[in-house]
């Protein structure tokens, strides 16, 4: 993307977006989206000094640093977070509302940020990436952990484009669509000696459980359901991500509780079995959530549809291609 040069200004009004060079807003949005001035320069086909100069002018105009340098990149200030939504709206309006048939997806460039649960990333994203390569090869994805408290604010200010979470945020500005029920099942290795007869809640509690670390475990409803039924299980092994469950379960006598869709997915690659839990868990769903301003955005809409299609395709009943244990 090329930026049309604008006239230099010795000083610009402070604390207002009025009268600012549109080029500065384009640079601001690119830095915000990329988290790096060098990545923004590459994205905009500009030199690094030109981007740095534009950011310096904008900082002077807004009387705010806008971005703080951290080891992982540039972090927006509170003022930048308040600005990004109006800036993106203004750029969209100035660019015109385009229809999908007016977009050349083969040359379309965009970087999408998605908040997504660990198991959903494994199930959905490979299929989405294949669809992107076929349809929009210049589009890139960035997946962010769901275990964060500010995701509603990030959806509202445009820091992230989409969230796949366990609960739909209660705000009229955000739109939610159910992806799948969070149906929880018990998973064990094939031939596990505890499953020769039906489990009771007591025998379930006495098994060797693999669990998430406490902070992550507290964010899901499994523990709440167990406590409500008076069942207290103990952790034999504690991990920080669900992807650690399958290999540990397949090679030991550990058991774990997982969403059914994720258990079915990893069962194709690990010699594990899915069992119904003797303890009923609270029923809820996983939702896809986005800001209402993106409802008619053609690329955003295409991405939402691609995510849902990838989930349906991946969770369809298929033969396991291989197993890591025989």
Provide a count of the helices: 12
From the N-terminal CA to the C-terminal CA, the straight-line distance is 53 Å
The fraction of residues in strands falls at: 15-25%
Average residue pLDDT:
81
Helical fraction equals 25-40%
Low-pLDDT segments? 1-15, 96-100, 319-326
Please give the largest β-sheet: 5 strands, mixed
Oligomer state of the chains in this structure: single chain
Count of extended strands:
12
Taken from the alpha-carbon principal axes, the silhouette is elongated
Class computed from helices, strands and strand pairing: alpha/beta
**How large, in whole angstroms, is the Cα Rg?**
24 Å
Order of helices and strands: HHHEEHEHEHEEEHEHHEHEHEEH
User: Could you give the order of strands across the largest sheet?
Assistant: 4-3-5-12-6
Characterize the structure shown:
It is built from 12 helices and 12 strands. With 326 residues, the chain is an alpha/beta fold. β3, α5 and β4 form a beta-alpha-beta unit. α1 packs across α2. The protein is elongated. The N and C termini lie far apart (53 Å). The N terminus and C terminus are likely disordered.
């Amino acid at each position: 993307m090329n930026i049309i040069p604008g006239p230099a200004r010795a000083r610009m009004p402070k604390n207002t977006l009025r009268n600012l060079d549109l080029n500065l807003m384009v640079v601001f949005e690119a830095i915000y989206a990329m988290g790096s001035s060098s990545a923004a320069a590459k994205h905009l086909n500009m030199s690094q000094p030109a981007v740095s100069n534009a950011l310096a002018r904008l900082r002077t105009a807004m009387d705010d640093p806008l971005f703080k340098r951290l080891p992982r990149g540039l972090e927006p200030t509170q003022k930048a977070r308040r600005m990004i939504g109006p800036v993106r709206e203004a750029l969209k309006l100035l660019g015109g509302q385009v229809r999908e048939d007016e977009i050349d997806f083969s040359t379309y460039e965009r970087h999408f940020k998605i908040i997504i649960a660990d198991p959903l990333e494994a199930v959905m994203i490979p299929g989405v990436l294949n669809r992107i390569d076929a349809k929009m090869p210049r589009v890139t994805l960035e997946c962010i952990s769901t275990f964060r408290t500010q995701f509603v604010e990030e959806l509202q200010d445009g820091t992230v484009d989409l969230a796949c979470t366990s609960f739909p945020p209660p705000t009229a500005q955000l739109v939610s669509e159910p992806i799948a029920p969070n149906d929880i099942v018990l998973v064990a290795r094939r031939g596990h000696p505890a499953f020769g007869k039906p489990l009771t809640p007591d025998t379930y509690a006495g098994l060797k459980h693999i669990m998430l670390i406490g902070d992550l475990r507290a964010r899901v409803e499994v523990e709440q359901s167990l406590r409500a039924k008076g069942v207290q299980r103990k952790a034999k092994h504690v991990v920080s991500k669900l992807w650690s469950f399958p290999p540990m379960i397949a090679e030991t006598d550990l058991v774990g509780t997982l969403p059914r869709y994720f258990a079915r997915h990893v069962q194709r690659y690990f010699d594990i079995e899915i069992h119904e839990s003797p303890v009923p868990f609270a029923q809820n769903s996983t939702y896809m959530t986005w800001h209402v301003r993106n409802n008619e955005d053609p690329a955003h809409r295409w991405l939402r549809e691609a995510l849902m299609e990838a989930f349906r395709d991946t969770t369809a009943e298929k033969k396991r291609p291989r197993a890591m244990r025989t």
